[in-house]
Amino acid sequence: MSAATGIPVAEIEKRFKISGSVTDKSNGELLTGVTILAEEIWAGTTTNVYGFYSLALVPGDYTLRFSYIGYEMTEVKVTLKADQTINVELNPKGLNLSTVEIKADRASEQLKRPEMSTIRMDVKTIRRIPALMGEVDIIKALQLLPGVQSASEGTSGFSVRGGGLDQNLILLDEATVYNASHFMGFFSVFNNDAVKDVQIYKGDIPVSYGGRLASLLDVRMKDGNNKKFSGTGGIGTIASRLTLEGPLGSENTTFIVSGRRTYADIFLPLSSDKNIRNNTLYFYDLNAKVSHKIDDNNRIFISGYMGRDVFENQFAYMDFGNQTITGRWNHLFSKSLFNNLTLIYSAYDYAIGTPEGNANSFIWKSKMKDLTVKSDFTWFLNPDNMLRFGFSSVYHEFDPGRARGLGDESAFKELNMPPAYSLESGIYAGNEQKIGSRLALRYGVRLSAFQNIGPSTVYAFDAGYNLIDSIKYGSGDFYKTYLRLEPRFSATYSLTENSSVKASFSRTAQYIQLAQNSTAGTPLDIWFPVSPNLEPQTSDMLAAGYFHNWNSAGVEFSVEAYYKRMENTIDFCDNAELLFNRYIEGEVRTGRSRAYGVELLFRKNEGRLTGWLGYTFSVARREIETINNNEPYAAPYDKPHNITAVVNYELSPRITLSANWIYTTGAPVTYPTARAIYGNQVIPVYSGRNAYRMPDYHRLDLSVTYRPKPRESRKFNYDINFSLYNAYGRKNAWAINFKQEKERPLVTYAEMTYLFGVVPAVTFNFKF
After folding, report:
1. φ/ψ (deg, to 5) at 614
2. Backbone dihedral region of 626: left (phi > 0), alpha (psi from -120 to 50 degrees) or beta?
3. Which of 353-367, 651-665, 737-751 comes out lowest in average pLDDT?
4. Could you please report the per-residue DSSP string of 96-150?
5. How many helices and strands in the chain, by DSSP H and E?
6. How far apart, in whole angstroms, are the C-alpha atoms of residue 586 and residue 421?
7. Strands (DSSP E) found in 511-554
C-alpha cells in the first residue's frame, strides 16, 4: 500500500486529472499564478495566465489548497476516482494573519520555480506609489525596480540591463504596443483602472516569446465583473478617468470599458495670452473588452485599445497614437491540454506638419501595422512536467514616411520613403520539470524566421556607405530570409524551504529596430526591419542569483548577477540624418556590445510598513565600426549606479503615507569640445562618443492618501490622494544645449534645461 494515498502500489501509475479555473469571488476575474497544492504529497501547480490549472494525481483522498496573494486560502477535499473539474472562487481579504500565511506559502512555491529576472507587480501596489501630477503610471512604477531605468527625466521610456528602448517587447493583451508614451513620454498608455496583471521579464524570457533582446513587459487587461455592474474612476490635476464593467445578460458574458482624457486644452482658452489660447494639447485612451464563457472547455475574449496625442499651436501640429485589437479563443482539448488561439491587429501612426500659408508648409505621415496569428499549447503532463509549444506569425507593414507641401504657397517637395513588408515567424517547444524535491528546470528552444517581402526597393552601399545602386523587387517576392535558433534554459535548486539558487541562459534575436531622434524616444522615431544590408541583432545572456524569504515577516531578498553579449548592435554615425531620409540604412553602423551587472532587491510585503529597497550596479559598452575611432564607448543607457527606495506606511485604516526616492548616475552624452571655422560656417568639434555624463539624477516623491472608514452598506467609496513630485525641488537636467557667444563664435557654453521643480497634485478616486 502507498503510505501517502492508501492505494495498492500496483495502481500507483494510474493517474486522473483535476482541472478547472480559479477566479475572484467578488468579480469573477480569472486569477493568474494561483498556487494549488495537494497537501498529502506536497505536489502542486499554478494557474496559467487565463486562470486554468491541471494536476494529474493517482487515485486517493486529497486536500487541495488554493492560495493567492491578498485572498483567503481555500481548501477543497477531493476523493479522486476519475477525472474531475473543480472551479474555485477565492475570496479577497484584508491584511491579517491568514493573509500572511497565504503569502508565505506562495512565496515558498515561487522560490522553487525555475524562473528568475522576473517580477509581477500588483496593481494595488502600483496605485500607492507617488506619481507625476497624480497620474498613477505602471511604467513609472517599474522604473523603480532594480535593472529597469528611466530613459530620461519624467519619461515612460525605459532601459533594461543596458538595452535600448526598442529592445523591450511591450504587450497589452498580447498585442504589441510600439509607442507606450503620452505627452512626449511623461505618461504611459496604460490606464491602471483597466489593468489586471503586470509582469516584466528582465531576462529568462519564456520560449513562447521572441523578437526583442532586452525584456518583455506583459500587461493584461481586466476581463470584466461578472457578479454586478460596477465602476471606478478618478479626477486628477491633469486627467480624469472612468471605468465601467459588469455582466451582459448572465455571468458567462462580461464587459469592461475604460476611458481617460487630459483636459489642459479646456483651460488654455482662459489664458490672457493669445498664443496660448489658440493652442491644443491633450491625450486620451480607450480600453474595451468583452469576454464570454461558452462552457467549461471554451472561452472567447475580444479586447481593444485606442489612444491618441494631439498638439497644435500657431507654428506646428503633431498627433500620434496606437490601436490594437486582440481576439482569443481558449479551448481545452482534454483535462490536461490547454490551447489559446490568438488573432491580433496592432498599429502605430504619427503625423507632423506646419500650418498652410507659407513656403515651408508641409505634412508628414508615417505608419506601421502588424497582423498576427499565434497558437499556444500548455500540456499539464504530470505534477513534474508542464510542456509548452506553439507557433506565431506576424505580417509587418512599414510606411516610414510620406511628406508633401500644404497649400499653393508651399515650396516643399514631395518625398515618399520606400515602404517595407515582412513576415516574422516562430515555432517553439519547452518543458518545466521538477526533479526530486529540490531541483527544477525550465528548458526549450525557439526557431525564429524573418523574411523580407516585395514590393520593395533595396539600396546598395559601398564600403564608405555611399549609395551605389538600387534593386527593385516585385509584389510578393521573398527576397531575403534570416533564421535564428534561440535556446533558453533556467534552473533552481532549493537550499532550504526558505532559500534557493537559480541560474539561466537565454538567446534572443531581434529583427526590427528603431531610428531614434533622442535617447528618451520621441513620437517621430522610425521603425525599420532588417534587410540584405542589415543582419538581425542577437543576444546571449547568462544570469545567476540567490533568493531568500523570511516568511514570518513577509520579507524577500534577492541578488542577481548577469552578463550579456550582443552581436550586430546598431548605432548611427556622427551627424546622422534620420528624418526625411530614404537612405537611412546608410546612416547605420553595426558592431558588438556587452552589458553586465549586479541587482539587489530587499522587499517587505507584510504589515503596516511595506515597500522595497533596490540597488543596481551595471555597465554597458558598445564597439561599433567607424564610431569613436573603433574604440569601445558607453552605451546611451550606461548608468553604473542606481538606488531606489519605496515605502508605504499605514498610519491608520484611513491614512496611508507613501514615499519613493531614486538616485541614478548621470546618462552618458557627447559634448562639443571646440568649434572651428570652415569656409563661412562655424562647425562644432565633438568629443569621443558618450565621453561625458549628465549630472547625477535624484528625486524624492511623497504622497498621503485619505479614505473614509469603509462600510458594507455604502455603495460609493472614495479616497483622496495628495502628492508631491520632486519634493525637495532637485533641478535634474533634462537636456543640455550648447551655444556660442555672439562676439566670440569659437567659444562654447552649455545651458541646462530643467523640466520639473516641485509638482503638487490632488486626485479624487472613487468606486461604486
Report:
1. -130, 150
2. left
3. 737-751
4. SHHHHHHHHHHHHHHHHSS--SEEEE-HHHHHHS--GGG---HHHHHTTSTTEEE
5. 5, 51
6. 19
7. 512-515, 526-529, 537-550
Q: What is the pTM of this model?
A: 0.91
User: Which domains occur in the chain, in start order?
Assistant: 9-93 (2.60.40.1120), 181-767 (2.40.170.20)
The secondary structure of residue 30, as a DSSP letter, is B
Count CB neighbours of 104 within 10 A: 20
* Mean pLDDT score across all residues of the chain: 88
C-alpha cell at 650: 499605514
DSSP 260: E
Nearest to 101 by CA among 558, 500, 602, 553: 553
Answer yes or no: are the C-beta atoms of 573 and 589 closer than 8 Å.
yes
Instruction: Give me the pLDDT at residue 125, please.
Output: 84
Q: What percent of the chain has pLDDT over 70?
A: 92
Q: Write the burial class of residue 404 (CB in 10 Å: 0-12 exposed, 13-18 middle, 19+ buried).
A: middle
Residues making up the chain, counted from first to last: 768
Q: Check: CB of residue 751 under 8 Å from CB of residue 737.
A: yes
Task: From 258, 171, 199, 193, select the one nearest 32 (Cα to Cα).
Answer: 199
Grade residue 109 by pLDDT with cuts at 50, 70 and 90: low
Q: Grid coordinates 499605514 are at which residue? A: 650
User: Rounded to whole angstroms, what are the CA distances from 274 to 64, 267, 280, 312?
Assistant: 69, 13, 12, 14
Q: How far apart are CA 276 and CA 633, in angstroms?
A: 43
Q: If you write DSSP's letter for every residue of 32-44 in order, what string do you get?
A: SS-EEEETTTTEE
Provide the Cα torsion 464, 465, 468, 472; round to 10°: 150
pLDDT at 210: 96
pLDDT digit string (tens) for 468-524? Answer: 999 999 999 999 999 999 999 999 999 998 999 999 999 999 999 988 765 555 667
